[in-house]
Amino acid sequence: MPEKSSSDEKTSASDRLLIADCPECRKRVLAAVHGEVVEMPDEDLGRDAPREVVLAACTTCNTAMVLVSEFVWGPDEWESPENVWPNGARTVDSPYRVQRAFQEAYRCFHQANAYAATATMARRTLELVCNDQGASGSTLAKKIDWLKQNNKIEGRLFDWATALRFVGNDGAHGDAVGRQDAEDALALTEALLEHIYVLTVQYEKFSERRQAKLQAKTPTVPNPAPGTQGVTPPHVT
């Protein structure tokens, strides 16, 4: 488990101060820490490094916020804390790496007004979804086509994913990306995550329950006794 700096160890949680983005002041401020939890790596969740979750309050307006810092292996340091509530992205029940990429795209748009970066991270999220679903192909375009061919996405979602790839390419290659394109890219990314990781899973569970009910209602016909198959019972008068 990574250790915090000696200065941190000498102070209580409420004495710690961090620099954070205050959603009320709309600028970077000093935030007083009121509680913290370190979550250790979890292979099942795809979390390969510890992260610190902090409850803090702005020292200017006293607005509460939740901050998350990722541990950086090697230099024994923590990344700058990111505001995940109330400014954080909506969490879609998806693999950890996919969530992180989508949340970064969200923060690029809502906190930094960085529209090219938003489009780039939306494209990155799409690429991680393709990898998670086992899509094959040497390019993202081929991976998206694989998703369609394997019934992971359908017609309109395929068009959305393709459009998302184009906007992401603009961001990655330095082409201008406007606010509306970035906002649309973010919305399309969320729609894809909802379809693949929420609605599809929910429908599969619903179908399983329906199938179980139908099987329970189907009468069971007993097997005939050995040696009686094909024998017509005698006529009783």
What does this structure look like?
This protein has 237 residues and is α+β, with helices and mostly antiparallel strands. Helix content is 44%, strand content 18%. The chain has six helices and six strands, in the order αββββββααααα. The protein has helices spanning 6-9, 96-110, 115-132, 140-149, 155-172, 179-217, and strands at 17-22, 27-39, 51-58, 64-72, 77-78, 82-85. Strands 1, 2, 3, 4, 5 and 6 form a six-stranded antiparallel beta sheet that branches. Helix 2 runs antiparallel to helix 6. The relative contact order is 0.09. Mean pLDDT is 81; it is low at 5-12.
Topology:
Elements lengths: L5 H4 L7 E6 L4 E13 L11 E8 L5 E9 L4 E2 L3 E4 L10 H15 L4 H18 L7 H10 L5 H18 L6 H39 L20
Antiparallel strand pairs: 1-2, 2-3, 3-4, 4-5, 4-6
Helix pairs in contact: 2-3, 2-6, 3-5, 3-6, 4-5, 5-6
H and E order: HEEEEEEHHHHH
- Gyration radius, in Å: 26 Å
Helix content: 40-55%
Largest sheet: 6 strands, antiparallel
Mean pLDDT: 81
The coarse silhouette is globular
**Which band does the percent of strand residues land in?**
15-25%
**Helical stretch count?**
6
Low-confidence stretches: 5-12
The structural class is: alpha+beta
Annotation, overall tally of beta strands = 6
Task: Give the N-to-C terminal Cα separation.
Answer: 87 Å
Short structural summary:
The chain is α+β, with helices and mostly antiparallel strands and 237 residues long.
Question: Which properties best describe this structure?
Answer:
alpha+beta; 6 strands; about 240 residues
